[in-house]
Amino acid sequence: MPLFEAKNITKRFGDFTALDSVSISVPERSIYGLLGPNGAGKTTLIRIINQITGPDTGELFLGGRKLQPDDVMTIGYLPEERGLYKKMKVGEQALYFAQLKGLSKSEAMKRLKYWFKKLEIVDWWGKKVEELSKGMQQKVQFVITVLHEPKLIIFDEPFTGFDPVNANIIKNEILFLRERGATIIFSTHNMSSVEELCDNITLINKSRTILEGSVSQIRKEWAGNEYEMAFSGEIKVPGNGLYDILEQTSENGKTFVRLSTKGEISSNEILQTLMKSGNIISFNPALPSMNEIFIRVVESRN
Amino acid sequence: MNKVSVIIKREYLTRVRKKSFIIMTVLAPLLMAALILVMPLMMMSGGKEYKKIAVIEENTNEFVNVIPDTKDADFEYLPGADINEMINKFESEGYYGILFISPLAINNPVIYSKKQPPIGLLEHISSSLEKEIEKKKLLQYNIENLDSILKQIRTNVNPVTKIVDEAGKTTETSTGVAMGLAYLGGLLMYMLVFIFGAQVMRGVIEEKTNRVVEVIVSSVKPAQLMLGKIIGIALVGLTQFMIWIFLTIATVAILRGTVLKTGDITEMTQNITQSVMESGQAEVPDISEVQEMSPELAEFSRVFETAMNQDWLLIIFSFVFYFITGYLLYASIFAAIGSAVDNETETQQFMLPVTIPIILALFVAIGTMQNPESQLSLWFSLIPLTSPIVMMARIPFGVPAWQLAVSMALMVVTFIAFVWMAAKVYRTGILMYGKKSSWKEIWKWLRYSG
Predict the structure, then answer these.
(1) How far is residue B81's CA from residue B194's CA, in Å, rounded to a whole number?
(2) A54: closest CA of chain B, how far (Å)
(3) DSSP secondary structure string, B16-79?
């Protein structure tokens, strides 16, 4: 059963339609990618999930029942437009946000100690936010987002502002949260992180869903007629009427080839032809990157 | 509701703990007290803007030493001086100007100067000359003992005002006290609403530019955040206000004790009573002196007496009522404006239409002190955007109960409507970035659904 479901969400702002009958279904303990170009309607959908705005039509379900106003307590949200009070001290501020999420002061204190220690930011407790670097502020913000142990966590571009080391720390924390039972909705433009983290995605373009499903399934579907193969020995593979060679590199006594077939040709036919060129040590359909799929899908729609 | 109190607490504590708040809270009353004490001192000891004025008469010597020197100006008589000569050199000889009196145009003496002379100087000259001319005219009637007769007929009339209520009971009142209260009430209301309303706006802009707001509204409703901020700042205002009143009174009391020595006032009263008692046995000429002093004393005591006769309960109740509703009304407008812009400089275009009714109300309130029964005052004390200020100015003069009721009812309806509308604008505005907002845009936001 999905932990969260949005069914046929439509939202208009005056004459502008931000979302046109968009549905998503997020399985429990999965990471769900919400993708789309700028202005596609992702942020509007996220705000509707957070009940910051309401949909014009459509229904939302959390844990099998209709979304309630009190459910904001079980949702954590790290918005893309995020910030902290600059003049406030880090610890005080974290306590404030925890209390707004309904935690008692003592409970919030206990959990904050745990997280500050885990992310090695204990020393910043008494510092003003304006004294912190942007990456440090992001870490504090991450803690604030997950402190009340939400069932559903929404991260909107969580890695911006982090250096690679800290981005990796946050990535691992996200995976850890899923291990502990949280379900995560993840909105980003960084497609390599989608491949790494997401189980399922929805691609929204111009307020409509144009692609959805599991990441591995989608990549297989979009694989088309490209193959990657390796030969032992540094050789030259010629092209012929059956396929085009897209790429060919030789190194360390191996040759890597990427090719695309012409028309409906089975892999066996190709292999029979290629066997003549040398000793094949691997042969795989080439999976397109999410980045390629994203660009191809969006451009085909425009 | 619990979350609103968390927000109120933060809004209150962060502001109260600021250095600028503490400095302002402590310094402002010291400055105020200093102003209260120093102003009269300065006026008395006169840091005087010294002016020397040459007085020249054409052919006659009728007005020698007629115009007394004031603290600002000395009058120097130059009998027989040539006016045409003096016009060319009065400045180099250290004169501010020349007063030229010609017997042919006695009613229109001419003042020559390099700059436009101040009104006080003109009034002083004209009243001194008028008095002298009148005296000269009277002298032509050859009345005996003219001087003592003139002293005897000099009179001062001070009407005492008594308000008659329905039961026919009369209460002595003072227009001066009413005016003072009207001024204080109106001005205070204006300052509170404006200063703290603007603070709400700045707070909203701060949250928006810091990008904190979206994190918060994922936990609380935007309306809760707005209300929490408005209430928190109101409490900051009240705290500051109380401390100010307390500190001002304390400082004035301390400074009066040390700087002015004790009993300046008692000394003055003693002098007055003494002269009143002496005048009992004194001859006719002293009467004029008594008549000049005793009304002051009478007015002095009457101010206190009549101040107590004011309906303080009504004034305080109305002030609290109009402050709360007026502040909520304007603060919510300011919050909506703050939400619609990305930074403070953008607020200009929205501020003007909001400032106009407040400024207008202040002007009408000042007019009300002159003429509390005017149609203008009536209407402005009923219209909710101006009523908090204007009605506070009207109340000390007495307001019919039905007018007060209508004004308050309109106020309640309007402030609820404004808070509701402001919340709608606010909800959309705080999440809009980089969009140049306009009145048209705001109108659109008003109609968005939840």
Answers:
(1) 59
(2) 5
(3) HTSHHHHHHHHHHHHHHHHHHHHHHHHHHHT----EEEEEEESS--TTTT-S---SSEEEEE-T
Chain B residues in contact with A97 by the CB 8 A cut-off are 215-216, 219
User: Of 3.40.50, 3.30.565, 3.40.30, 3.30.70, which CATH number belongs to A224-286?
Assistant: 3.30.70
Beta-carbon separation of B444 and A14 below 8 A: yes
Global pTM reads 0.73
Query: Which residues of chain A have a Cβ shorter than 8 Å from any chain B Cβ?
Result: 13-14, 47, 50, 52-54, 56, 72, 75, 77-79, 81-88, 96-97, 99-102, 141, 144
Q: Any CB–CB contact under 8 A between B6 and chain A?
A: yes
ipTM of the complex: 0.80
Question: What residues in A contact B206, CB-CB < 8 Å?
Answer: 85
- Who among A47, A72, A83 is closest to B219 (CB)? A72
Architecture label for domain A2-219? 3-Layer(aba) Sandwich (3.40)
Measured between its terminal Cα atoms, the distance across chain A in Å is 35
| pLDDT by 10s per residue, chain A, length 302 | 789 999 999 998 888 899 999 999 999 999 999 998 888 889 899 999 998 888 999 999 999 899 998 888 899 999 988 889 998 999 999 999 999 998 999 999 999 999 999 988 899 999 999 999 888 888 999 999 999 999 999 999 888 888 888 889 999 999 999 999 999 999 988 888 888 899 999 999 989 998 889 988 888 888 777 888 899 888 888 877 788 888 888 888 899 998 888 877 788 888 888 888 888 999 888 888 888 888 888 888 77
Quote the distance between the C-alpha of residue B418 and its chain's center.
29
Nearest CA in chain A to B432: A81
* Domain locations along chain A: 2-219, 224-286
Amino acid at B448: Y
Q: What is the residue-wise DSSP string for A182-229? A: -EEEEE-S-HHHHHHH-SEEEEEETTEEEEEEEHHHHHHHTTTTEEEE
Nearest CA in chain B to A47: B218
Residues A204 and A42 sit within 8 Å (Cβ to Cβ): yes
Candidate from A56, A72, A96 with C-beta closest to B449: A56
